[in-house]
Amino acid sequence: MTSDSLRPWQAPELTSWGRLPMSAVDRRSGALSLDGDWRFQLLPAPDAPVRDTWSSSYVPGAWTMQGTDDLPQYTNVRMPFPEFPPAVPAANPTGVHEREVDVPAEWAGRRIVLQVGAAESVLLVHVDGRPVGISKDSHLAAEFDLSAVVRPGERASVRLTVVKWSDASHIEDQDQWWHGGITRSVLLYATDPLHLADVTVRAGRHGDLRVDCRVRNADGALPDGWYVSGELDGQLLTQDEEFDRAGAEDERVSAFLGEARLQATVPEVRAWTAETPELYGLTVRLHRADGTVADTSRHRVGFRDVEIAGRDLLVNGERIYVRGVNRHDFHPLTGRTVSYDDMRADLVLLKRFGFNAIRTSHYPNDPALYDLADELGFYVVDEADIESHDHAHEIADDPRYLNAFVDRVSRMVLRDKNHPSVVIWSLGNESDYGAHHDAAAAWVRRHDPTRPVQYEGAAKLDWADPRLASDIACPMYAPIEDCVAHALSGKQTKPLIQCEYSHAMGNSNGTLADHWAAIEATPGLQGGFIWEFWDHGILQRVNDGRPAGRGGAGLYEGGVAAPGHRWAYGGDFGETVHDGAFIADGVVFPDRTPKPVLYEHREIAAPVRLECFRHEGVVVGNHQHFRGLEWLSFAWELVVADGPAVTVPARLPALRPGETAAVPLPFELPEDGGEAWLTLRVTTADDEPWAPRGTVVCLPQVRLRAAPSMTHVPVADRSVEVDEEGLLVHPLLTAAPTLSLWRAPTDNDELGGMAARWREWGLDAPERKVVGVRRAGGRVTVRAEYVTRAGVVRHEQVFTAVEGGILVEESAELPEALDDVARVGSVFETVAGLNLLEWFGQGPWESYPDRCTGAPVGHHTLPVDELFTPYLRPQESGGRHGVRRFTLSAPDATGLAVRLDRPRQVSVTRHRAADLAAAAHHDELVPRPGCVVHLDAAHRGLGTASCGPDTSPSYLIPTGVHSWAWTLRVL
Ligand code: IPT
């Protein structure tokens, strides 16, 4: 099998050999687990001789994460090697895994099957030295019938050889780390020779249930008299004797294939939706003629309908919003091996932050993920393991790859078709569009007419063309305006649901709320899937550059790696071909710590909203599709500028989905005339499978009264001290306030080209020239010029001694050429020891002008060290939007207080922008003892330009004059 003449790793026509057909019969329970330490050796090539020296490797696991010299490598589009498909490099790491298996004696007479959960990218199976089978398709299980090669009661030696690079690598060119290994569990199980070969469950929202069974006998022809029975939540289902398969003389028996149908209607069925994940237990039994049970298959059934009506995707007849995320299999210690607990934690977190949908980018996930999605409630776009990004055009019509496309798509559908969570099949990602896609789509449409098919590569040719292999218009990173224009064009024929949007690389996801405002305002738009869930940073030891592996458990917290460790991204394992930090583009850190964008998403997805405020009260709306408010608990919170927040329990009227009601204001407004806000704290009323009782679901807020303008009383007997450079001298400041126009470029700024322009302009360090310092009365006016390569910015500061401190009134005039700066504002630095920030404004989490919907106005308190978000590649971080005032204090309550003329963007961190820009990893940052404080008159939106649209023009900083004012007081 591994001779020169036959090289299965360079034969795209060969998708498998000796592999059993895929089915939806789940054999996990009752199986013998073969997980654990296996003998292991890594060969330099698949045809290199196996040596006598063995190490060991944990299965499931990638060897690239387990101390071998073959380390992870990250590439996005490009292949890690130059060979054209189907060729691969001669240096081709090959892992030989071997162990003994004691085959249970009680399996005598049974059919014995080996299941390998996933292997990257070619699996060769030998038992006691005899070749048993071959499989490709790295993210689906491969099964082999071992009945003829093992003996019950005896010991067998199982060898799993995994070849890393193959023809299949060219169609597994997803944007992620390259690994090698057996990444999902290995099992051995036994069935009766007479067994259920497949079970197909169809269950509609009105309670109609149909279960189609396929029966085979491994010993040959089917025996007479077999039959099938079922049980749904204890209710017996009997075989439909009327079932007449066209052409079959006897509906139950043919020579080698048996087919049977169970049918029932469940009265008053509890329908399944992502909001109401109601499941029924189904047991299917295959009986011998004497009634004894030969085989059993268990399923969880969700009664639900999915359909496209016109240009709407409907679940149970309702047009839903798809609040999705793209999720890769990822773990910082194990690479691609994820445990049940990890998958559950992923989904629980997504539920808590308002997501209702997952695209399994870009391959089928572990079977447990679909069980969890059924159980917790998610709509799943199940995606086949096909991405040929680097050679997409050549492969999409290369006949040698035709089998692989249909094989991968059909195997996914065969495995996952019974999951109510799966609502759409995806043919793969970024593989151009060729006849292979049409072939695969045709297979799906015939086999499972109950679900739509989508494929971005087809849809992008024409969002409305019904002939293409996509029932959904599923673009990636389409600008909001294009989506709206399409929906309004009169030409839309398909639901528009972006398969990827809002790229979460670094400090990002600007304009997410604008996307959703457009989606909710525009019939025809139904949502999309944020790119992506994970920052795929691998925990790496800094001293030897190795992955920490499973030994790294506990060596991270709150998104930060422990000292001596860091989150590795592309290039950190010494790869010369790599795509850098593009792998760190998720809404969670590598340890699943939420990034601030998740709070933004939670609010955008709020099931309950405050629609508007009039004097008599607020209008409350139920924004769910299927549920009332009974699962939620409510409290009103009155937030006033000067005084503590007041909270009272709230009782809301029963609201059906889509309904609104006016509710009287629960509070009298204080008569001080100050700014006031009303927040509705929405929490879970009971324990949910994904959240304990009392978990915050959303915090909608309305403003009851605006802030009055700032007034100051000048004091004549005190002056402000300014040095000969015109710089403020102040006991608490180590660097006086100066003008700042720059931020440490975010990934969006870098990849969108803004950072390069800023560097060209010299925005990071413009030369400051004092033009004049004028003292008059209690006031000092300092005029300065900041010289950039694109012109001079005139800056004026007027310092006035006012009651309690200093008033600083500033203005800056941006010349025409500086038409897109990062910020306009003041920056200063404080003495050490001021470690606590208390502010009135938006918070508590990080927010920016185009990502501030989820941060309610309130009184917030955080240690300075917790204000900074530890993005993997250091960049602008830690900002708070809409800050009205703050104090920065030491434990003895000394410190400083700042009040701003209007709600402004503020940041307080331990790092200068230049410190951040100079570092490549978070662990390289050395916190300064004092604080670096930015008060911004204007701050550029974040956008998503690292992949997709930049921020909207309304979040850019216009040229011309910007003015702002603030007071500084000593506490
Ligand atoms: C798109 C890919 O589908 C996804 O895997 C990821 O690479 C993402 O971009 C960026 O992080 S493809 C891109 C060319 C739009």
Give a concise summary.
The chain has 971 residues and is mainly β.
Cofactors and ligands: 1-methylethyl 1-thio-beta-D-galactopyranoside
Rg of Cα set: 31 Å
From the spread of the alpha carbons, the general shape counts as globular
Largest sheet: 12 strands, antiparallel
Number of strands: 55
Helix vs. strand class: mainly beta
Strand content: 35-45%
> Helical percent range?
10-25%
Walkthrough of the structure:
The termini are far apart. With 971 residues, the protein is mostly beta strands. The longest helix has 15 residues, at 402-416. The strands form twelve sheets. Strands 44, 45, 46, 47, 48, 49, 50, 51, 52, 53, 54 and 55 form a twelve-stranded antiparallel β-sheet that branches. Strands 1-10-9-12-7-3-4 form a seven-stranded antiparallel β-sheet, with no helix packed on it. A seven-stranded parallel β-sheet has the order 29-28-27-26-25-31-30. The radius of gyration is 31 Å and the shape is globular. The chain contains twelve helices and 55 strands. Helix 4 packs parallel to helix 5. The model is unreliable at 246-251 (pLDDT under 50). Helix content is 11%, strand content 36%. Strand 38 (632-640) and strand 39 (646-650) form a beta hairpin. Bound molecules: 1-methylethyl 1-thio-beta-D-galactopyranoside. 1-methylethyl 1-thio-beta-D-galactopyranoside binds at residues 76, 174-175, 362, 429-430, 476-477, 500, 503, 531, 582, 585, 947.
